[in-house]
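Now read the record:
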Amino acid sequence: MARLADYFVLVAFGPHPRGSGEGQGQILQRFPEKDWEDNPFPQGIELFCQPSGWQLCPERSPPTFFVAVLTDINSERHYCACLTFWEPAEPTQEAASAEDAADGEEELEDGGRMRLSPSAPAPASQLFAPKTLVLVSRLDHTEVFRNSLGLIYTVHVEGLDVSLESVIGNLLTCTIPLAGGSQRTISLGAGDRQVIQTPLTDSLPVSCCSVALLFRQLGITNVLCLFCAALTEHKILFLSRSYQRLADACRGLLALLFPLRYSFTYVPILPAQLLEVLSTPTPFVIGVHAAFQAETQELLDVIIADLDGGTVTVPECVHIPPLPEPLQSQTHSVLSTVLDPELELADLAFPPPTVPASSLKMQDKELRAVFLRLFAQLLQGYRWCLHIVRIHPEPVIRFHKAAFLGQRGLVEDDFLMKVLEGMAFAGFVSERGVPYRATDLFDELVAHEVARMRADESHPQRVLRHVKELAEQLYKNENPYPAVAMHKVQRPAEASHLRRAPRPFPRLDEGTVQWIVDQAMAKMQGAPPAVRAERRSTVPSGPPMTAILERSSGLHANSARRLEVVRNCISYVFEGKMLEAKKLLPAVLRALKGRAARRCLTQELHLHVQQNRAVLDHQQFDFVVRMMNCCLQDCTSADEHGIAAALLPLVTAFCRKLSPGVTQFAYSCVQEHVVWSTPQFWEAMFYGDVQTHVRALYLEPPEDRPPTQQVGEALAQEEPPSALDVASEQRRLWPTLSRAKQQELVQKEESTVFSQAIHYASRMSYLLLPLDASKSRLLRERAGLGDPESASNSLVTNSMAGSVAESYDTESGFEDAETSDVAGAVVRFINRFVDKVCTESGVTSDHLKGLHVMVPDIVQMHIETLEAVHRESRRLPPIQKPKLLRPRLLPGEECVLDGLRVYLLPDGREEGAGGSAGGPALLPAEGAVFLTTYRVIFTGMPTDPLVGEQVVVRAFPVAALTKEKRISVQTHVDQFLQDGLQLRACTFQLLRMAFDEEVGSEGAELFRKQLHRLRYPPDIKGTFAFASGATHTPGRPGRAAKDKGPSLSAPRTLSRNLMKNAKRTIGRQHITRKKYSPPSWEHRGQPPAEDQEDEIAVSEEAEPSTLTPSAGLKPADRLTLSSLVERACCRDYQRLGLGTLGSSLSRAKSEPFRVSPVNRMYAICRSYPGLLIVPQSVQDNALQRVSRCYRQNRFPVVCWRSGRSKAVLLRSGGLHGKGVVGLFKAQNAPSPGQSQADSSSLEQEKYLQAVVSAMPRYADASGRNTLSGFSSAHLGSHAPRARVTTLSNPMAASASRWTAPRGKWGSIRVSGRSGGPGVGVDVGSRLAGRDVLGPPQPNGAPPDSGFLRPQRAALYIIGDKAQLKGVRPDPLQQWELVPIEVFEARQVKASFKKLLKACVPGCPAAEPGPASYLRSLEDSEWLTQIHKLLQVSVLVVELLDSGSSVLVSLEDGWDITTQVVSLVQLLSDPFYRTLEGFRLLVEKEWLSFGHRFSHRGAHMLAGQSSGVVPIFLQFLDCVHQVHLQFPMEFEFSQFYLKFLSYHHASRRFRTFLLDSDYERIELGLLYEEKGERRGQQACRSVWEHVDRLSKKTPVFYNYMYAPEDAEVLRPYSNVSNLKVWDFYTEETLAEGPPYDWELARGPPEPPEEERPDSSAPQSRRRVVWPCYDSRPRAQPDAISRLLEELQRLETELGRPPERWKDTWDRVKAAQRLEGRPDGRGTPGSLLASTVPHHRRSLGVYLQEGPAGSTLSLSLDSDQSGGSSASSSRQAARRSTSALYSQFQTAESENRSYEGTLYKKGAFMKPWKARWFVLDKTKHQLRYYDHRVDTECKGVIDLAEVEAVAPGAPTMGAPKTVGEKAFFDVKTTRRVYNFCAQDAASAQQWVDRIQGCLSDA
């Protein structure tokens, strides 16, 4: 029985002691006055009676009632029912409050101030004071409290004839039964009757209607939000104007949380004085009156629910995790169905008659039923994760959170994670985990209804039925007796509170009340104590748990196959079939990503352990450890799937013998995992093991009663009982046991826990102590930093170190890592663990102390064991890593760092790693990186053994390195890898490497430093081109002279150098070059023949007169000049007929231009060549002055002249500011007294005038139209003013008109991404000359004839727009400015960086596929820049072709100027499209005219910061674009361009080093190429190298070369017409870049005699992988194939092979002759007949598809005019016969001597007779099977023969011949044994062979 009410209290208004504006509550009386022993009187009740504060009221209010809840220090809740009514204030109260009001200056409603004196009450302003009746109880019966307090109030107000004392005495003595489901009628002695029902089950909360009200007020989403917030321990604050509503809302929220109990602060009604409680840091559920809403605004982390407004406000900083799906959506839909049953029927056409909605009370239970189901689904199977650690004296139970989350599939779920870690759940486990107790509705639900709930999920009606069933049970729990008798309680009459009360509430007689209470107590003591009878039972566990959300089956459809693979591999390992296991291992390691496979692995390994031990050999041990590591690397620290737990016993079982008495266990090799350093993992493992052992204690049959057969059989049939079952049975028996027996059981359990603690201390030391425990500073360090041997196995200490110290807070890891050693850290970790688990498991303190003493000893013993293991493991042969493959090196290339073992990782290019296109996964590859003086080379093999023995090579020149960055590498499956390095090269290679552990960080650092040193040598002598043959340097300059002051000392040094070089070379410089005979097309526009004598003729029979420089020069200069004459510039000037060398005007009056030696000492311009072409009329001394106006002194010089129109192309640097001002902005003619600047500007103007007048037909100065199109009249000025052409202000109307017919001229703006050809009106219409001309050509170019109008300027100056702003051009309008916008070098650099990243990405794209590649390509803007260059070049070509000269004057004159000028010459002059011409073009425009190769390529240390700016590469890309559009116009192939692109950055040759001829001369480089011929030394010049290679192979030659006479090329330049160069994207992993030709040899053919038996059919087919093999080599084009075939045939026929070029020329000639009868055109159209005549250069299709090869093969065409198919076939046949006729030779020709000899085969082979042929011509000894055999069986190269000597007979030799018939031929490879017929013929053979040798 329990008391209904503990205390009755009367509280009234009293003045505040400190005189503030409010009053305070005063307890007038309380009953009983003494505290109950079991329940002291709660403090602070007076605050809770009036939560908003005690205040007087101007009018009577009706009585109010609410229940406040107080929580005492023991977490007991006290329910305080408060009934408040108002009485007229006593005068003292009023006066006090009036004074307060005056002090506080409070204004009352009537606006006046009141002063009340006690003597004169003012009735008009009567005030009323509150008085409260309070009932304090520990039971929650709100209605009973309301009725009881109401009765007391009624008795008082209505003046009933009942003593108040007796009513209160009865109330305090009333007791109600505790037993569930009982009913009691009570009466307080005032004619009243109340029935009290106790709930059936105490544990279920009583909610009345509170939950339903809460949902009504806030709605579903808000309540769910509050529900999640309460479970995840957030702060919740309710606001309302009603106290009772606040109390109900809080009660409703707590009811929803069942079966969890809310254990934090719970105050449904918080008094105003205690509002600061809201800023507490702990979670709470609190209700506050809405009047204080303003005070709650500053709370930053409180969720505020406004019950009256129906809103829930969640602050930004608070994250409430939602319920896991699908539970969230299911719960939401069921709640909406319950709250609004008509929702389902709302859309029906014929809705059924409406069902009456449930009553509020019933709806309340239905809502609670939904949440009860939710908890059952959330916590289903929780009992399977309980660990029972102790059974006696009290159960100790732990919950395995990680396993629960793992098996429910909710590891990532934030909500459940927080719930399980919360206090409420901890209480749930300790309360409900008990195996033997009373059960309730939740236990039944979670054990038996889970299957039903899962089945009902998709059937809403069945779910609703279940909810209603549960609601019935909940309702019945609260109302067990439905037909309850009606309450009968008197109530006051209506509006009784307004009547004037007869008297205030009286003071009660304490004695009377106390007497009634004492009487009742005496009765109670006589009665027997009421013991609550509990029906206890074993709690059902229910079915094992399942995942909340089943994973989609598609993912693991093939899991059975994977498990089979895992099982097979393990059985192979233990059967010793290592090769089979090795094949399966990669598949197993892949399969182990899946959970099922990992579980399978642990089960399979368990089968191979006998008696806790399994000794393996080394290979088996390695396999098992690798698989374990792979399993563990995907385990999280929590080990939610129990994989680490299952492996823990195995790692201490598998071992290998290292030496007698020393055994290494697997645990020493699997320490690298975070799970071992997680305390929670060890605790869960420990509790699990303890549970197993405790269960075993009670399962042993007692000794005294042997089990009978029946018992045994019964047991055999049943499953063994679980630990919880055992514990439940033991708890049931506990009270029946004797005291001694109880003690014994407690002892046994404690010793079990203790022994397990010792066992775990050892286990933890196994997994935490590193193998090499001598490393004291292990924490925060990477493995392998110490001596290399210590890193030989992959387990070094960072397992514990890195993971524990960094990933966990100090609570769980080792905190003071710096000061301590390993052992100390491990001991502390273990001690912390032991403390926690032993305290929780109830181990006595004595035992605990004993453990603390043992732990350091355990750790120390283990360290000693490990020392022996470590020592022995270092003696093991290291793991067999693949042999390092050494790369082939070039002559002169030396290794700087020998192979460092690395893994080459896949980057963003898919092909090598398999990728979407399929193919083998060549990457990742395992091998080594070599650093040589020239290259960085990786060679290795794919790690995936299924790919096969493919060698993978990636290499690039050190000089090409652009970026090196460290990358962090994911731990590799096999071994632990260190940090990686990513190297990117400007030749479009990328190496992503991870260093092997044996390299160590020092090795990696050394590699980086050496690489940096080689990449940026301090000066040019450090580059490979110099260092590789460092014995030369004939003319090295004095360094001091160079550095001191270039302007003073340079000429002296130079002349000295030039003298030396000239002396050395003058005698033999003319022999090496052939005479240039200008091609025939040039004669048309050349000067008369007599002028040609004045050219610089460099011929083999050189006349002294032409070679000797004119007499006016000093002797030293003469020598210099004779050297300069040899340079490419001069040879080209001579070819173009551009002037003479000399200043005597008499000789060359007719020449408009001359060669000026003014810069021979590089005094005027350092970056120009020594000889320059200037107008004839300009004197040398004027040039110095002109040069000052231009940047870098690069004044305008002529570099090319059109053979047809005689227009010239000039180049210069941009104009200096002063030059611009002086030349263009001066309005008046210069006066004699002007400054130096003005005079030089004048010189400049004269100079341009001279250029103009040097042009034949354009001296006419009449007012003609020009490029810009507005004449002086338009400008409205009197003076003939400037015309400035602009190419960058498109005007809409004409731009659109212009775009439509032809998209030829793109905008030349830098921002040209808009891409449309928007050109200014003027330029558009003038350049197009539309009104004059005929229809455009097919490529959108204007027609050839008269492209521009006849009236045009003689000279166009193309300059930078910014530089020519506000410029006033030539007053005579003879030249015109064309300002254009060009990009700068830094834009090229930025663009190139992006291009590199796009073509060779470092990591896979976020969204794979072509789109992301194209996007990044577009972002780079590289093609836009190519477009810009081509566009400007075509503009210049058009101007030149129309007869106007052009001066290109951009930037400093050495980057974009060079690009444009070179492209213009290439497009205009077919000579530059030959191999020789292109070389000349590059030597002249790029090398002689000073493009800064070293600076732009960042070759030296000084240029490191400026980075790589590939201006030359951009030019080559432009050439490549033109080559694609005009494939028949170029003599060189695409490979030639790629070769130059690669080697201009590689620093292998000296050609592209240094920044100008001046610097090359200073180093003595310029003339040494023609100096003495050295021995076998590497080529210094890229051109020499190309020449040599061209003799051997046609790789640089373009077979489609069939030029048209004097064709000017006009390529398309729109971005849509440009292709990305495959140089940027292709790679050959088989051998690295193919541009070092000597290295790129295919695999060696097996020697003839070692070939396998030729009778077996041999396929010559092989797979060609695009990223692995070189396709051109694997599948050469038809012509190369035929040429190779011819060479092979020649060799077989014993003829010296002809050069491929001769053969090819002969074939072409034969083809031309044959072509004529078929109606072919001129000889020039050899391959062109199939191409439409008007634009044959568009025959791009010749390259794409098989068409190219068919055309090349037949060399004739079926589509040629007038030839039928048959005739062309005959032609084809004729041509082939012609090809082969020349090879039918007489055999005797090349057979110097022949006969039969016996030859001894290779090792262990017999002697055989062969027919031998000695061939003097080919210098070889061949042999055949017999005389008439045509197939040669083998060749002995006589070049390799070292000696020929008499031999001796060996085993198996012919018996019949004498000893003298034997002789041996010794070669560098082996010794051949021969035997002739007799001694004489043997002697003859020896003589003949020796004769051949001596002839050679």
Remarks:
- The chain has a mean pLDDT of 75.
